[in-house]
Design brief:
Layout (H helix, E strand, L loop, with lengths): L2 E6 L8 H15 L2 E6 L6 H9 L5 E6 L1 H8 L9 E5 L5 H5 L6 H9 L2 E11 L5 E2 L2 E5 H8 L2 H7 L2 H11 L5 E7 L2 E7 L1 E5 L22 E6 L4 H12 L9 E6 L2 E7 L4 E3 L2 E3 L3 E16 L2
Parallel strand pairs: 1-2, 1-3, 3-4
Antiparallel strand pairs: 5-6, 5-16, 7-10, 7-14, 8-9, 8-13, 10-11, 11-12, 13-16, 14-15
Helix pairs in contact: 1-5, 6-8
């Protein structure tokens, strides 16, 4: 009999948590699995909780929520043999989309209960802490956009709410000076945004930083955006949409295999997988093959 521990975020997206719980219990009961469902409150130390549960003999962990829920749960099983499954309940569900996991809840549950395989995903450890991140970290306009997009707007408009939040964030935003160190090579740049990306899609599914950015290649990509106006951002967005990123002068890319350090002057908002970090500088250690995730069988 398999033992599964589920972390359920009750405020992710628009799904009703009671309906999710009922669907999970029915599926686990049919499969003959034992289960425990934990509903988050926002006050717990999720990596510590998950790490403790993973040491109690659970065969599988499930993150039922959005991308922030995934990173919190995955942080508790970094570099362990305990696999992790995703049930996408969030607004954008970038990690699930990148891994080919169905967006419909029943279909995602069928992947978990049925024939599947495991895929190892790279991670980013920030400032030596227990919390790891698996999608992206950014300083500047994109972080302000995510900070200023209200939960009610996301529930009503979905990922389109982020576009409206981006227009608000751009209003009056000035370029800042960044000190950037990539694998011990130091650079000083002026930019409105620095995005550290482990995946190609940033913010919304249609916005791809590049076709060569992958979750499992042992590399983390850094994109410096040097736009000064809404028009510059529109041209940068067009370059990204048309896959001309490397040819646009306002975009600059770096690749890191070991460490990345970023410091902004003045202090700018910082987000990592949708959570905010209240500090001026961040130091990232790259963790290849950090967690094993359940994905549809190819």
């Amino acid at each position: 009999m398999k033992r599964v521990f589920v972390v359920l975020n009750p405020v992710a997206g628009t799904t009703k948590p009671d309906e999710v719980r009922q669907l999970l219990e029915q599926g686990f009961r049919r499969a003959g699995w034992a289960w425990e469902i934990y509903t988050t409150t926002g006050d717990e130390d999720l990596p510590v909780l998950v790490r403790r549960k993973s040491q109690q003999g659970f065969d599988l962990l499930v993150a039922a929520g959005g991308d922030g829920t995934f990173s919190g749960v995955a942080s508790g099983v970094v570099q362990t043999e305990v696999p992790l499954s995703i049930l996408p309940l969030g607004t954008v569900n970038t990690m699930a989309r990148e891994l080919g996991i169905p967006m419909e809840l029943q279909e995602a549950l069928d992947v978990l209960l049925g024939d599947h395989e495991l895929r190892a995903v790279d991670g980013m450890q920030v400032d030596g802490g227990a919390r790891h991140f698996f999608l992206n970290l950014s300083l500047g306009v994109s972080a302000a956009m995510m900070r200023d997009t209200r939960r009610a707007e996301k529930q009503k408009m979905g990922w389109v709410a982020y576009l409206w939040g981006g227009l608000r964030a751009l209003s009056g935003f000035q370029p800042a000076r960044f000190t950037l160190t990539v694998d011990e090579e130091a650079y000083t740049v002026r930019a409105t945004d620095v995005v550290v990306a482990n995946n190609s899609a940033v913010g919304v599914p249609e916005f791809q930083l590049g076709p060569d950015i992958r979750l499992d290649d042992g590399l983390i990509n850094v994109c410096v955006i040097r736009a000064r106006s809404i028009w510059d951002y529109a041209r940068a967005a067009w370059a990204i949409v048309t896959m001309q990123q490397k040819r646009y002068s306002h975009l600059r890319f770096f690749e890191a295999r070991r460490t990345i350090r970023i410091c902004s002057h003045p202090r700018l908002p910082v987000q990592a997988d949708g959570d905010f970090i209240d500090q001026q500088s961040v130091e990232i250690r790259i963790v290849p093959r950090a967690v094993r995730v359940v994905v549809p069988k190819r």
